[in-house]
Amino acid sequence: VVFLGARIWFFWSLVLLSVIGILAAYTTMLVVLGFLLCWEKNELYLHWYHKIMVLIVILLCSFLMWILLTFWRERWLTIGLSLQVFAPYIHLSSISAMVLLSWPVAFYLIHLEGEARMRRYQNTSERRRNKWCTMLTKLRVLQVVVGLPFLLILLCLYVVPFGTYSPCVQEKDKLAPKPDFFGHRGAPMLGPENTIMSFEKAVEQGAHGLESDVQISLDEVPFLMHDYDLRRTTNILEVMPNASDEQSSFFYWDFLSTLNAGKWFADSWIKPFFGMKPLSEADILARNQKIPKLSELLEIARKAKKMVIFDLYTPPRSHPSRSSYIRLVVSVILDSKIEQHLIIWLPGSERDYVRSKAPGFQHIGRLFTIERLTKEKITRINVDYKNLFYNGLKEYKAANITINVYLVNEPWLFSLAWCSSIHSVTTDNIQVLKEINHPYYFMTPDFYMFMWIFLDILSAVFIVAIFYSIW
Hints:
Pfam families: GDPD
Membrane topology: Multi-pass membrane protein
Main location: membrane
CATH class of the largest domain: Alpha Beta
Radius of gyration: 30 Å
Keywords: Glycoprotein, Hydrolase, Membrane, Transmembrane, Transmembrane helix
Strand content: 5-15%
GO molecular function: glycerophosphodiester phosphodiesterase activity
Largest sheet: 9 strands, mixed
């Protein structure tokens, strides 16, 4: 999703992928058609705009692939993670697909064999050896080109479980408890992010903890705001357009408290999350949400006994709280009277001071080494799931490190976290994930082995029968 210059949400990726998909499919058809014509030694009759389209699509796809590989490199890691979950099902489905594919493959191979036999008969009767030998060679090459890859792929599918690993293939008694939920900026699919309504919705949905982002105003009031400016989630463009590009922390609290922080969410004709349900009449108060203080979030957490974790933004250089913001936030937390063990302290600065003033805070690190976590006496980590699953998940679990991963919104990804014994996840989609009572795509090793052997035998019998019947 991109917040365009027009200040509206637009799912550009859906449109872009649809257009590129249509163009790529059409261009692929033209390329295949051209290849077949060249194979049969026929002249190409592609119109000039078809040739231009093929060139444009190739250049466009190459450019987009470069962008994806350069700027969205971490996104590709998600593909590998998805294969960990879906690998057993892709394997079993692929064997079934090969059985269906064996019918046209068998028909084509046997058709080539019949034509080769006919050519061989013509070769002995008409004695045009050179010409017919070339034709026979061409037919044999076609048989090898079609038949050999089919056979190799089929054999690989028969043995691929020996080289695959899926966390969701395990014994039922080894499955870890369901991970807890931290509401990412509250429940941002049910209320405007980082507002009182959003956090109350997260509590209603049974969140184990609340996650937020804290900045410091010019008059030293900690408030909740994720973005470095106020344009996306407030009405500052209407109230003070000339200052809309200013960093959020360069405003006084008296002004920040007057801004509307919910209208963008309630009145947007396209919602900030794909598949988000429209607001009910009872949720009309979303339009009147304001930017909350950190103390207001702490009050909600204190009453509901929910844990709190937050990113604390370092004020800019010229900000009056630049050197004292850690102490300021600790003071606000202590004044709120919230139980100290409910605070999960993420900021890495001045940990010794924080421990001395608030010994009950639970300190949490990022993707640090085990040695560093041990040295700093940290037993919890908060990490991006893409980085964790590729960087020492087993080592952290072996060291009894409590793990929270973000940002987990899809049921399959939550299932992967559950099967991997992750302790908690930060999510936007708590209302959906809380309904999952058992990880998706879970199966026991014995059941997977039974299905694997059964499908291998059944597919082999079907494929042999198909070839025999056509022969």
